[in-house]
Every structure is written in structure tokens, then in C-alpha cells.
Design brief:
260 residues, 24% strand, 5-stranded antiparallel sheet, alpha+beta
């Protein structure tokens, strides 16, 4: 289901243009992952599940400088859009999702089996153990910021691999996960192809009509400034993380980890 390397680069290039931003901004909708507070801001609501991600920002020392650039970009966007329209993701929870697993209603339904969580954790651990020898390398995959993307409910930073080998390593991980019969039996299957991104914030409600073309140019300027300042992004670890909402990604000491 995932793109080839060249198709991936071409798709991301299209998603990160001002013209695409402008057309996407005309159709944004309020994210249900955040709710309005009395003071006009937005706070996360319960949205439980599991993902395979890189360590969150507060734990990822290898990418501290990269995440600071992302936080500066986020601040600029948040000041432009306002708290009612743009709910920021705390920089300490910034991360790259390597593979979505299960979330929200599907996870709540799976929870009727009291053994679901340990089954999932054990299954991911077995997959990581099987593929670790094939993914070990002297140098971890290196990616780089390639722009901003406007999604229906969010704005995110997009990433491109620095070479085809870096892309193939992540695709190999995803293939091992999504082709696992054991994971399929737990109700987990691939639903999205890879769009490597780090979410900066989610949309709320606009208090006034948006000038989509002007905002598109603003976002492109933010992206160009951030790309000029951002160092490479290292993908050194893939971790199973349990999330309770879109700002909290936790792991127990026994949760499986894959070195990349």
C-alpha cells in the first residue's frame, strides 16, 4: 500500500505547495480531538490507542535542535491563527509516527478482551525481535523537513528521506507490522500509506472568514524559514507507545523497542 520511493517524493512535493495549501484551507474542519474551553482555548479530549513512534520530543535528545526549530515554526503559526482556530501540540510530545496501530472506537471495542493490551505488546515485541537483525545498521535513517502540509483537521511538518535506503528501512518496518497475521487477528491492519509528518496543531473554529490564499503564502514562508534552519531528523528508535490523547504518549519499561 505504501508508495515507492520516487512516488513518495512526488506526492510530498505536491502536498507542500502554496497552491495545495490554499485549496486545502477552504475545506478544513474542527478536530474532535480537542474541545473549546471557557477562555477560548482548546484542550485535548480522550483519544486512546497504540502507535509505533519515534521517542517524543522531551526524550529525543538526538533531535532536540530539530524540534526547537519546529517549536519556533509552531509558535509563528499559532500567533497568526489564534488559540480558537489552532490548538498546539506541546513540543515535548512532538514525534514521527512510523506505523498507526489502533485507536479510539476500535481500541475501546478491543478492550472488551482484558488480555488485548498484553497480546498486542507481546506481538509487537516478537515482530521487533524477528526484524531487528535485518534493520541493524551503522547509521540510522536520516530524514529532513520538506515543508508544511495542511490536513483536513491539522497542520504538520512533512519529512523526506535523505536517500532511498532511509525510506526502505521504514517501509520494511511497516511491511513487517502490517503483514503480520498475529496483528491482523487482533484487528489491526494498514489504513494509511506513509506520509511522514510531525503534527504541530489541530484546527478549531475560525472566528472570522479565512483569506486562504494569503494564509497559504504565510504557511509557505514559515516552511521555507524552518527548512533553512532545521538540521536532519534522525530515526534511531521505533517504540510501541500507548496514548491517552494527542498530547500524551507513554511507555512502560517492558514495551518493545526497535533500533534503527
Amino acid at each position: 500500500m505504501d508508495n515507492t520511493y520516487q512516488d513518495y517524493l512526488e506526492r510530498i512535493a505536491h502536498l507542500t505547495t502554496p497552491a495545495t495549501h490554499g485549496s486545502k484551507l477552504e475545506h478544513i474542519v474542527e478536530s474532535p480531538k480537542f474541545k473549546a474551553t471557557e477562555d477560548g482555548r482548546r484542550e485535548p479530549v480522550a483519544f486512546p490507542g497504540y502507535s509505533i513512534i519515534t521517542p517524543p520530543g522531551r526524550e529525543d535528545r538526538a533531535n532536540a535542535e530539530f524540534y526547537q526549530v519546529m517549536a519556533d515554526c509552531q509558535t509563528r503559526i499559532a500567533q497568526r491563527l489564534g488559540a480558537s482556530l489552532f490548538a498546539i501540540v506541546p513540543p515535548e510530545s512532538f514525534h514521527l509516527t512510523l506505523a498507526d496501530l489502533i485507536w479510539d472506537g476500535a481500541y475501546e471495542e478491543a478492550g472488551y478482551d482484558p488480555q488485548f493490551d498484553p497480546k498486542l505488546q507481546r506481538c509487537i515485541g516478537e515482530i521487533f525481535e524477528q526484524i531487528q537483525p535485518n534493520l541493524s545498521s551503522p547509521q540510522s535513517p536520516q530524514w529532513q523537513m520538506s515543508g508544511l502540509v495542511v490536513m483536513p483537521r491539522a497542520i504538520a511538518v512533512t519529512l523526506n528521506p535523505t536517500n532511498e535506503a532511509a525510506y526502505d528501512r521504514i517501509i520494511a518496518l511497516r511491511r513487517a507490522l502490517y503483514q503480520s497475521r498475529a496483528l491482523m487477528e487482533l484487528g489491526i491492519e494498514q489504513q494509511y500509506n506513509l506520509t511522514a509528518h510531525i503534527t504541530l496543531g489541530y484546527f478549531g473554529k475560525a472566528t472570522e472568514p479565512l483569506d486562504c490564499q494569503e494564509l497559504a503564502q504565510f504557511l509557505d514562508a514559515c516552511a521555507q524559514e524552518a527548512m533553512a534552519a532545521a538540521p536532519p531528523f534522525w530515526v534511531k528508535r521505533a517504540e510501541l507507545r500507548k496514548f491517552t490523547d494527542m498530547t500524551r504518549y507513554e511507555r512502560s519499561p517492558n514495551f518493545p523497542v526497535l533500533s534503527l
